[in-house]
Amino acid sequence: MSTSCLRARSAGTGRPGRPPVVLLPGLGAPGYLADTLHGCAAATRAHLLDVPGFGGPGPLACEPEIDAIAAAVASWLDQPSVLFGHSTAAQAAVAVAVRRPDLVHALVLAGPTFPPELRRLGPLAAAFLADVVHESPSALPGTVPHYIRAGPRRLLRMIRSAQHDAPERAMPLLTCPVLVVRGRRDTLSPEPWARSLAAAADGELVTVPGAHTFPARSGGATSALITEFAGG
Question: What is the pTM of this model?
């Protein structure tokens, strides 16, 4: 599929010395990152990409798999940017940074998935149930409509692709600054896993309140982390 199908929601104005911010949503649901987009836009030009394309009508921008999403994002970027990926999109963001280091000024990985113990559906389902009891209902309007549009087959395909990916192998290859952020109650991105990813890239780890979808309820705090880390 062509990246001409890739939809982007953009806000803010570019400023000298401040690279743009590009946000990638977890499991293809862009709506819950709207507040983070507007928070970043207060500091610089910001874009929220609809990849693989679950966010709106029309054809998908790419197949719902980590490698395809990374290829679509790498083709869309046209200047060095701060790349933010949440959940499965953190895996895609890592792949972009390895593939096109010239286009990634800094990398922010929020709730990165999946540690080896969650690369089977049974343990992943148990971790999801343990996480969901701590999630805020504020995440639902920005996620559920996109999941319904995607349908179970596409969602499962994307989840399986993320389970087959091994981002820990790519982390030592990164050459840009890396910040890993996780929610304190996030069972999909447990603390030892997040810490090991940050250490492998000589990066930083920050723990924030909330569970896996913490950006949905704290877009302002999330955007502040992104722009401050990037020097904005």
Answer: 0.96
SS3 assignment, position 60: coil
- Please write the tens of the pLDDT for every residue from 112-139: 999 999 999 999 999 999 999 999 888 8
Region 163-191: what's the mean pLDDT? 98
Q: For 227, what's the count of Cα atoms within 13 Å in the CB-facing half-sphere?
A: 24
What is the DSSP code (8-state) at residue 142?
Answer: T
Host H or E run for residue 34: helix 34-41
Residue pair 30/49 in contact by the 8 Å Cβ criterion: yes
Q: Which two tokens stand for residue 26?
A: 């977890």
Any idea which residue has 């990409």 for tokens? Answer: 49
Closest C-alpha among 96, 48, 94 to residue 72: 96
| Cα 179 from Cα 181, distance rounded (Å) | 6
**The amino acid at 2:** S
Beta bridge partners of 10: 47
Residues 6+ apart with CB under 8 A from 221: 208
20 — alpha (psi -120 to 50), left (phi > 0) or beta? beta
Nearest to 85 by CA among 75, 95, 99, 98: 95
pLDDT higher than threshold 60 for residue 41: yes
Sign of CA dihedral 95, 97, 100, 104: positive
In this structure, the strands spanning 7-11 and 46-50 are antiparallel
Mean pLDDT of 128-153: 92
Q: What is the pLDDT of residue 4?
A: 63
